[in-house]
Each structure stands twice: as structure tokens, then as C-alpha cells.
Amino acid sequence: METVEEFLAHAVALEEDSAVRFDDMADALEVHQNDEVTGLFRRMAHFSRLHLAEAQKMAEGLDLPHFKPWEYKWPDAEAPETPEMDATHYLMTPHHALTLALDSEKRGHAFYADLAANNGNDRIRELAMEFAEEEAEHVALLETMLAKYPLPPGDWDEDMDPPVAVD
Amino acid sequence: MAHTSVSIALTGSGGAGVMTAGQSLLDAAAKAGFYGLMGRTLGPQIRGGESAALLRLGTHPVQGTDDGYDIIVAFDWGNFARFHDEMPLNPGSVVIADPHNGAVPDVLAPSNPHVVMVPFHDLAKGIQGGRVNMVGLGLIAALIGLDQAFLIERLSRQLAGKGAEALAASKAGLEAGAGAAAAITGVAPLSAPDPARGERWSLTGNEAAGLGAIQGGVRFCAAYPITPATDVLEWLAPNLPKVGGMLVQCEDELASINMLLGASFGGTPSVTATSGPGLALMTESLGLAVASETPLVVVNVQRGGPSTGIPTKSEQSDLNIAVHGLHGDAPHVVTAPLSIGDCLFTTQWSVYLAESLQTPVIVLSDQVLGQSRAIIDRPADIAFIGRRRVPETLDASYRRYELTADGISPMALPGMEGASYTAEGLEHNPFGHPSTQTNFHEEQLAKRRRKVEGFDYGDPWAMTAGDPDADIVVLTWGSSTEPAREAMERVRAEGRRVRLVAARLIAPVPVDRLTAALEGARHVVVVEQNHSGQYCNLLRAHMDLPGTVHPLHRPGPLPLRPGEIVDHLRGL
Amino acid sequence: MDVPLEETPVYKVKSYKSDLKPIWCPGCGDFSVLSAIMRALTELQLPPHQVSLVSGIGCSSRLPAYSTLYGFHSVHGRALPVASGLKLSRPDLTVLAVGGDGDGFSIGGNHFIHACRRNVDMTYIVMDNSVYGMTKGQASPTTDPEWPGSKLTPDGPGVAAFKPLEMALSAGATFIARAFSGDPLEVARQICEGIQHPGFSFVHVLSPCVTYRPEQKTWRERVHEGFPEPTDDRREAFLRLLDDDAFSTGILYKGRTGAFQPHAEATTRAVALGDQFVI
């Protein structure tokens, strides 16, 4: 990553992808009448969009490069703050949902912290530091929230009824 | 005394060329101003099997076979016993055979024909490149009074690429045959054709169905070959591209019908042609066409069933599957052409119905209509062109399966911005979203039924003829119409009053129109070619037929003949 | 600053998303494929009304209704002929077909073979979870012969698993790829390339079933980039497949045969076709 424009393009995509994924997960949980987790995911999506707006504001006036979705330089398969869809479950509890969110914020923090430490561009390092600090705040916030929702008993995913035939 | 119609059978095997001879005779007779009809019967061999060309020529339009044949020309008797019952003899008929092939088979003896021996093979051998079928043609032309010049003109075109020797050999064959005819007495020639005749066409029912489809607006066909429907496809393949369309040969009938669904979903009126086994494979997706309200037309050229049955012979036994073969309550349209020429009108009308109603239409043609060639008057122009209702405004309020008064909902087409939807085979709400809700199921079932049953099918629903107030009604559908019409005319000539009602619209059963058409009937004779009386049963399930009902039905492979219907009518 | 108009993205991911929410189990791989399709379309800036999405029956076949594309949710096994008929008669449209392993390789297996050899320009995305999800978890053609998880085949199906990529290559498909739903950006890349490829493009997506095959969670560890670059050499492609453990991902093969698309300009009026019958 060599230019500020490139960096901000990543910052925008990171938050955008995260917002879309949290919304998709909220939809999935809503269809399965898990209202508590649906609400949590909607809030996560909302926060991602707030951060997206901040990143977009910083990019105002700049000509950000276009990357194809698979061309971004993410450390993993997807943008760091995009929670993995297969980590959801229809009976998941707020504990699971917050753990998922916390993990994604931690990955976001690690992504920015790495740039802040290792990138060769002074301005990118500076910005990455700012972003990393903000992510650290999110991590702390989520840790506080998570403390209110201890690990549920081991049978949290037990369903007395079998799955049904649909089509 | 001259005849107004004569029936001729040419039979032979092992490459005698009876089909070519029959076709040449029909074409030449057409040029000379006659009307006519040619069917065929074939052995199971792909090449060289026993076969017969079955012709009827007349001074007036003939679209059905007579009770029997006036002239049988047999180049040999190979396997004749297998299909002799398809060639009954008329009283006073003449059988012309080659003495080298032995005596006339015993099966013909009860008819007591006038037998004449003509050494076809010797006569042909005496000519360089001579063929028995040309000798036979020359003989027949002389017997029925057809000017040989018309045959020579026809042969000149047919043999244009084969050089002067071939034509000379054929001419010599015709001459030899004409010479042999001079010794045959007792065959009356045909009367002279009507000099005031207009333009006439020569076509098979399968070709007529193809033309009707294209004239109705069809531009896409996907199909799998099957006897006796393949000729529809072979005609469409070169003709669809001429109007900017295409035919795609598929891996099976499942692919055919589903390709039609895709093409029609895209806005292209579409047709396929098949026969019983193929129709059976298509029924699941015909249900999808009903549920998703996707228009399409299936021309089902019926053959003997069930299962593989008798692929080369006619039967009207797919009515049940066409009407009832779909699972669930699946209202759709079933039609039937009434004659070879009517395959054009009925198929074109069916495209119009499919497009107007956004529903599948099954056209029940059959082998005898599809594979017989007829000389007919130029068909009248047909006003029915498929027009699909499309939305006037395109926005988020668009509902593909909107509940309308007539049940027909505007259909958006891919490419129309702002009205995209998902065509759905699951039960759905008016937007097309899947739903198991009671009210949506009831509304959509009612809507689909309303559009099909409430539609004004107009006069084409049936053809009527005869004495409008007669208390004897002959009720037919599809190919049983022509023999019944001829039977009616014969009985009327005897002084009886009879009327004919021939239904083009099979389903939905037009109860009100049928009730009106049958008003005052004391006898209703329902004529059809199947074993169980499928049409009669269908009508009885939907309405009370007036008077005494006489189901008159029998299966193929023998075609229905006027005489058997006459016998029944005389007994009333 | 001035941005040329044609470079301004008009369509965003949400332009392709309908108001209908998927009924899939949370955690299902199909969510990622849905989002990958939308990302590919966004990348290509294809107007939603110019794209059609056809499916058969099964969990993944529910996908069209979740989009704002012109969808056709057809019957079991028949997505490919429906899509073929649409594309052949409307070559102006971008046509996608989607479905599952049962829909595409079992009941629709014959259409799969013939769609590969017919090479109509469309993209077929199969979400393969080796199980029938909508009928309560029976073995599918791609299920391991030993899998004991279904009441229908308690001792395992006992039949060797179908090999979709080998079949596609043998039958003549000109674009063959495999991805894992857990890597949705790679799925999007393959779909994007498949759409751009002129011919029949087959994208095989390993898409785990969380309900009937929870053990497929381990697929994340098993998948590996086995096809880093496509080859245009069929022999090379076959050799790669002989070494394939069914978890190699990437674009395997890109052939050069042109797409099948009959086209004819009208030269005659329909009513004039009757002239050929005049005596």
C-alpha cells in the first residue's frame, strides 16, 4: 500500500463490507425470529456505517482508486472487519454475536496497527495509527458489552424439534 | 359414368418407389386441377420395407379417406397380409398385380375384386433404366383420365439433376403403363375438374401446423425428434430463420419444454411439437407454465398408445393426458385441428390463445392429419396474431400476478426497467413471492381459472355444418371430423336431417356454447378414434348432453371411415 | 474533480438486492454466493433489468427471488434448459443459472452434460453441499459413499461421488472453476470472469450445509488454491483433475471455442411462407 488514496479506499471498503455483512446476518437471524441477535447485528451494521461515513469524509476531494472486490490487499480472504457468515447460527446468543463482532474489531485493529507500524508512507502510518486507536476503542467497548453476556450453557444450540422438509 | 372422387392404393416393398409414385401422382393431379389427399402406411423397416401410398383424388375438396379403394396397384405382395385391412376395397374395385408375384392374396377374395394382371417388372425391364413405379403411374393416369403431360412436367422437375436419360426412361415407363391400361375395362375416369377453381395449396397437416405457428408469431422452437411429429420440426427448422427465429434440437423433451419456458419468459412466442411419450415427459413443466403463467404451444401429433404404442399410426387417445395430465388444479387450453388444412388455422389460433391468456396450449393433431398431404383451396387469411399484455407503467408497484377482473396480469419482459420479478412455480402472492397462505392460494387458483374459463373464444371454438335444426347431431373433435362430415352428407343425401358439431376447443369445455349448439338434439353421436371414448367422457363430466348419447369410438390403427358412421346413423 | 460519467458506478450491491429475506439457515454457504453474485454484477455494472437469473428447486434455487433481476424459479433439475432457451432467444441479456448439487447433477444431470457441450453463453453456479437440504438431508450425487447420515441410506449411499469438474471438462464446457463459499471474494471473481467468458461457464462452489452436514465446517481448512491460473489446454486440465482432491480452488480451464448462438435476420414476412405450398 503506497498512497493515501489507496489506504482510504481500503478503509472505506473495510467498513462498507462489514456493514453489508452485519445486515445480511441480521436479516438471516430475523427470518429465524432471533430478535435479540438481530438487534445486535443491526447495531453493528449501523456502527460500521457511521465509521464508513467518517472514512468517506476523510476521502472527500481525493480521487480514490477503484479496486475489484478481490483486488484489495487484505491479510485474509475478506476485509478484516467482515464477520464470517458461517459463524452464525439460528439459536446463537448475544454472547456469540458479540464475540463475533469483537473478533472482527480485533482484526480491524490488527490491520491498522500493522500499517501504522510497518508502512513506508508517513501519512499512511499517521492515518493508520488514528484508525487503530479508534478500533481499539471499539474493541474495549465490545469487551465491556460482552462481559454482560457470559458464555451460555453447552446445550444452547439444542432444538427439540427436527428440521423440516420445505420444497 | 365419371366419378367425382377415386381412391387409389399403390403398394410394394423393397424399394419399389410407391411413395415417390404416389407423391408424383398427387402433384400431377393437383396441377391438372383436382383436389386430393395422400396418406401412407409403412412397415417397421427403415429402408426397403413394405409400404403403400394411399390416395384419394377428387373434383371437389377431399380431406378424408373413403370407405375403400377403387384401384389397388400392387407391384408385389410382400407382407400384404400385415396391412391389407388398411386397404379395404370398394364394390367393383380393380386390383392390378404382377403375374410374377403369384395369385392375389386370399384376404382380398371376399371383396370379389376385378383382378387384372400386368407384368410391371417385365415392362420396366424392357426399358433402359426403367422402373416399375413409372409403369404403374402411367397405368393409373390412363385409367383415371389424368393427362400424362402433368406427370411428365412433375417428373421433369423431380429428375432435373439426373440427366436426360432418366427422364426418357420415366417417360417410356409411363407410356408402357398407359399401353397396359388400354386393355383394362370397367374403371370409370374422374370427371373434369372445376375450371373456376382459385389458388390451391399442397401441404401436410404437420407443415400446416408449422406455418400456423409462425404466422401466429412464433419465433422459437426447441424440440426432440419423435414420430409422427418430426415433420413439423423439419419444416420449422429452415423456415423459422427466414422470419428471424430459430429451432434448437434438444437432448430430450424435458429440455424442449423448459427451453420454451425460458424463451417465452424472454418475450418470444414459442412452440414445440411432440407425440404422446414426449407429451408425457413434458407435463411437469406444462404445470410450471400454468403456475408461472408463461405462454407456449405444444403441437402433440397423436399416435397409437399407451407407451411406445404404434408410432406410425393414428389415434385420438391423448385427450385424457392433454386435459388431465397436469398435477394440481392447472387450467390450460387444449385445442384440436379439424382437418389437414385446419392444422394451419388451429395452430395459429392456439398461439393467439396462449399469448393472450399467458398459458400453455396443447394442440391435439394426429398422425393421419399430420402426415397426410392434401390439395386444398388457399386458406383464408387468419386474423389471430399472438399479443401479450405488458405493463403500462413500470415501477415498484408492479405486480406480476396481480388480481385482475379477467384474470390476465400484465407480463413484464426482461429488459424492462423497473418491473423485474421472479417467475414462480411455487404458489405465490401477486408480487410473485412464494407463499403458502390460504388466501393467496385461493386467489391465484381462481385467477388462473378465471382467465382461461372466462375468455371469449369466439366462433372458432367449433365448426358446424348440416341441417341446423336436425335432431341428430354428430359431435366430433379433431380428425374424426372429416369422416363424420362425409358420413353426414351421405345420410342427408338419403333424406335424413343431420347436423355436425366439430369442436376445436376441447378444454376448457365450452359448456354454454356446446349447450346452445346441441339444443334440440334427440340423438348425440360422439365420434372419436380411441378405445375408451375420452371426449365423450370429458363432456359427460362437465355437462348433461341432451337426448340419447351414442358414443361411437374405436381405437386405431385403422382410420375412421365414413361408412361405419353412416351405418350407425342409419340405425337411429 | 471531474469523473467521466461512464466511470461513475450507477449500480451498487443493494441495487441487485430485493426486499425478500433469504430463508436459508444462518451460517449457510449460499448467503456468500448470493452476495458474490451481486458483487460480480456490481463490478461489471450490469443493469439489473438486463440480467436474468434462472434456478431449479432446492435451497440454493431460492436465490432468484432475493435479487432484483428477472428471475425464473423453475422446476427441479430444469434450470439449464430454461436459461438456455432464454439466452438463445434473447442474446442481449446476461443469463445466470444457479442451483444445488442434486438439482444440477442428479435430476438435471443430462441437461448439465448437454449444456456443457452446447456452450451457450451463460454462467452456471452450482452451490454444492453434498446433501439434499430441502427434503431433510439425503445423499446427493457428490456425497461420499460412506456417509451414514441419511435415513434413506443409513449405511451410506455406497455409490462413488460424481465429479462435476471432470464431467464438465469431458462434456465440453469452456470455462470451469471451483471456489469455496467461505472465500466470497474469490467466488465473486470467478463469477465475474465466467460472465465475461463467451460460452458456458461453470462455477462449482463448495457451499457447506450447517444443518445436515455440520462437519463441513472443516472445509475451510481443506480447501487450497489448486488452480492458480487457468489453462486452455484440455490435456493439462485433465491432468490437474487427476490430482484433484475435490478441494482445489481457482479457475481450472478456459477454452477458446466460440459460444453457440444461432442468429438469423428476417428476410421474409411470415404470411409469405405459405407461398411455398402454392400449386
Automatic annotation (TrEMBL), chain A:
Organism name: Roseospira visakhapatnamensis
Coiled-coil zones: none
Classification of source organism: Bacteria, Pseudomonadati, Pseudomonadota, Alphaproteobacteria, Rhodospirillales
Molecular function GO labels: metal ion binding; oxidoreductase activity
Descriptive protein name: Rubrerythrin
Domain of life: Bacteria
Domain Rubrerythrin diiron-binding: 6-144
SUPFAM superfamilies: Ferritin-like
UniProtKB/TrEMBL annotation, chain B:
Domain spans labelled Pyruvate flavodoxin/ferredoxin oxidoreductase pyrimidine binding: 212-437
Keywords associated with the record: Oxidoreductase
Ranges where the Pyruvate/ketoisovalerate oxidoreductase catalytic domain occurs: 14-177
Pfam families: PFOR_II, POR, POR_N
Coiled-coil regions listed: none
GO biological process: one example: response to oxidative stress
Gene3D superfamilies assigned: 3.40.50.920, 3.40.50.970, Pyruvate-ferredoxin oxidoreductase, PFOR, domain III
EC number, as in UniProt: 1.2.7.11, 1.2.7.3
Entry's Gene Ontology molecular function annotations: 2-oxoglutarate synthase activity
Location of the Pyruvate:ferredoxin oxidoreductase core domain: 470-543
NCBIfam families listed in its UniProt record: OAFO_sf (TIGR03710)
Protein name listed in UniProt: 2-oxoglutarate ferredoxin oxidoreductase subunit alpha
TrEMBL record, chain C:
GO molecular function: 2-oxoglutarate synthase activity; thiamine pyrophosphate binding
CDD domains (alphabetical): TPP_OGFOR (cd03375)
Positions of the Thiamine pyrophosphate enzyme TPP-binding domain: 57-205
Enzyme class: oxidoreductase
Named cofactor requirement(s): [4Fe-4S] cluster
Cross-referenced InterPro entries: 2-oxoacid:Fd_oxidoreductase, OFOB, THDP-binding, TPP_enzyme_TPP-bd
GO biological-process terms attached to the record: cellular respiration; small molecule metabolic process
The keyword S-adenosyl-L-methionine belongs to this UniProt entry's keyword annotation: no
Record-listed E.C. numbers: 1.2.7.11, 1.2.7.3
PANTHER family (UniProt xref): 2-OXOGLUTARATE OXIDOREDUCTASE SUBUNIT KORB (PTHR48084:SF4), 2-OXOGLUTARATE OXIDOREDUCTASE SUBUNIT KORB-RELATED (PTHR48084)
Name of the protein in its database record: 2-oxoglutarate ferredoxin oxidoreductase subunit beta
